[in-house]
Amino acid sequence: MHLPAGSFVRGRNGGPRADEAPEHVVELSPFTIDAALVTRADFARFVEATGYVTSAEHAGVGIGSREGMDDWAWERVPRGTWRRPFRLPDAEYLPDRGPSHDVLARDLEAFLRDDAPVVMVSHDDAVAYCAHLGERLPTEAEWEYAMRAGRERSRYPWGDEPTDAKGSYLLNFWQGESHTKNDRLDGFVYVSPVRAFPPNAWGLYDPVGNVWQWTADVYAKDTYRAVAPRVRDPKGPTEGDTFVLRGGSWWCGACTCEGNGLHYRGKAQRLAAFNNNGFRCAK
Question: How many domains does the chain have?
Fold first, then answer.
């Protein structure tokens, strides 16, 4: 998706997190960005073409969360990779065993769909994938500009509520008083297919929710305070090992980070491979 040069108001004053302030104007040069998140099928083609080995595969472990865990909890997933980003006995998640009768396993099979966003990929993995296509990760500013699609200051690209006028959910996020049980009001427990919800006004899918999205920017809590009231093509700090994630994920809900939305600045270490992190490319 090609986006012309433009500007938007980034950040918010008086919010609950200091790293979201202050508001400032960002001007951006033209760029392109993928309309949808990178899928498992996309990533599989990349691996087949290059023989690429992900950070989680090198480490022999990924990081995951699932229904029934405590709020804010995560667990090590031995042998967890983008191919099987959750923890269950082999017999429960091998696709050639047929549909599982175990509810937990059946829900987790959402991760195995070809059109599911690829997860349990590190920042290094995302950079490598995009570079293979002659592309790159979007900067944090490019990401927010594209996902807002002309709407400023609101929590979502369409307003401040997660539903439309008919009460239908417009994004995939956690509903429930805790992570013990997902109330499934949006139709999903874990990841959803990348085009399951309507796109934003510029035709970009999953602008918020589903999976956190890696950006090119190194994270710093004072990034917004370090720039002028009006800045052009900002790229964040030049050094660091922790990178910005935006958009929130299926694991975000009122019981935890409330990260789904366009203000919250997530972060993770460069080699971290969670089962609620994904990405899209830009150029």
Answer: 1
